[in-house]
Model the fold of this input.
Amino acid sequence: MASTKPVDASLWWDSFSLLLTELENASLSSDLPPILVKTLKDNHAWFVDTVSCFKPPNENSREALNSQQMKIGSHQLNIKPELKDKALKISSYLCLDEVQLYILVERSLENKDVALDSILHEYFHAVIIHYYVERQCLLKCTRSILTHALSFGSVSGEANAIKEEVLKLISDGMEAKLINVLQVLFSSDHPEQMDIDLFTLWAEETLIEDNLVLDILFPAYYESFCTCNGERWKTLCVLYKGILSGSYNFEKLAVSTEALRSSYQTKFQLLLILIETLDLESLLQMVHDAIPFRQGTFVFTLADVQEMEAIISTFNAFETKEAGPLILAWAVFLCLISSLPDSEESNVLMEIDHVGYVRQAFEAALLNYCVEILQSDVLKEPDGPADGYRSVLRTFVSAFIASYAISLQLEDKSLKLILDILCKIYQGEESLCIQFWDRESFIDGPIRSLLCNLEGEFPFRTVELVRLLSSLCEGTWPAECVYNFLDKSLGISSLVEINGSFGEDRSQIVETHLPLHVPGFEGLVIPSKTCGHILRLVSGNTALVRWEAVCFALMDIGNSSHFQSTGMNGQTESNMRLVEVICTLVRKLSPTSDGAALMSVGINILAKMLRCSPSRVSEVALKANIFGFRNGHNDPSSGTWFLSGKLAKMLLIDCEQNDSCCSLTISVLDFTLHLVETGLKNDAVLDLIVFSIQYVLVNHEYWKFKVKHTLWRVTLKVLEVMKKIITSVSYSEKLDEVILDRLLSDSSIHSKLPKHWRDFISAGSLI
Done:
């Protein structure tokens, strides 16, 4: 027996779980430590080849375990017979190189994952977990390297070394290796003689690895570290078709709730990678700049497109709903190429029925699936690139709108779903909202046109307009843009009968002979002698008309020169505002799940607008009594308070029936918070403050939340409001009296406050 047996040095690896901890603890806003950068470079081969560096069993490794010692590069191991026996028995299950498996067994013992005298089953369970931890930490390390390169890649020093390392990984073939790993994972079958518990573990871990591989590929393509050529795209597309059609073992792995969630995420990620790598953004730019196909920087050749078409034509959206978005994206891709100037490709592509693809996708309820995606937990993953996913979907929808001239004349259900998708894409994403309002952003241009069309039909489509604007006001500057858009751009459209009083020729221009009231909106009047143009015929003699020279500005339309010159000041309320229209809409909503959702949208946009013009917006919103408080009947001295029964009911409906994480409660509390910040002193403000502390604070922990963690979200928000109230309470003697009376005397409120708050209030620090 040889004393020392040398084996392939590449079989050794240092713990990737420890390396991942170092990477995760490193700041994203500063250079990585030089020693950590060196470690990354030392492991370059592992990051390129990823989990394929874990080798299958081979005779040389098996023979090496018969030695007293093994030399693995610069590392030397003493072979312990009892560990060797366990490693050899487990090797047949994991299909892993015997030397690498011996290293796992030894490390599992050193980490006290398992005792030396444990039975084989326990050893196997501990080692397989250790094995998957190392594989997944290796993939997570690669993902973390990309994150660091993106977060700090433009700064000199070691950060540039990280970016260089990423580029070297790509140039050395990491992209191809990852795709190969994905193929192996999709095709893998479970080891024989595996019991049900270990099979479930194997299935879950395999799906997790699928997701991690895609976690690396998505930012690599999205951030342009590498470009997906035609061959790569076809390979990925065949993989996607395989998992949808069931030709891989992929669907068999969804054996638990966790595995089912992972399989859903894998499909979603691969779908978005396929849509992103079609590079619709570049095509939109080429169409925008009138650049011919062959003169652009587009990566696909005409031959690639034809071969890609051959694969797409085999998909069927009626059989698998997940095929719908890809089919529609492909139709958009073809349409944009055909729109390029002087395109020889157009003649070839004309033979492809891209409109038929659109029809198939819509008939297969594509839009419903897109809404489902945006509502899923995939976009809520803390480690996932949710903003990147939304950006891809934004570009996709915008390109679709541009390609097929989507307008408000689209069938109502489809238009509503498209607007739902847009709202869910932009909502809460400040960076996307900033891009939307940046007129230099050509990608958002088609969506901006859709918004302007909605505004053009105001107030005919008030609900749709308010919803979309509400999702576009995340952040200070976007909120100001929404405010200015409403203030400066808003005109009036209405349904009218085109008859003799409007002229006999039924031309595109009509004129009122008498003041025209806008149905459903009290106080909105189109003055006589006002001209307008017909937007579209709705039915028979009824047309939707956009009225010119009537600019109903957000804050003060009554003082316009037009109204003064036509003498209409007395017939139209002098301070008509769109805020009043929103308030009227909110006030008239029925206590239903849809009503609660729409109320949330309205209150949310009012809360954002408060920051732009606090005094004027608050004056109109509170005067409208949108929450239904019984003004004039409150008696603070008696200790009783008439809360809004309708608002309380709406909050409960939203909490129990809507998948919105109590958005209505949050928006009401945000509105209250902003009102307190304005320093406004009146009973309406007091209504909301008392409602927040006497109803929401006291009762919310007993609500039947549809999503469990929402309780903590509401708790944090109501405590945020309470903090603002406590620190601002001194601005009004009346508010001081009423609020302090409740904070000090109402035991139900007092018991809900954190102890240090109660001590602070009881000590009289506020007086």
Notes: The two ends are 89 Å apart (CA to CA). Residues 579-762 form one domain.
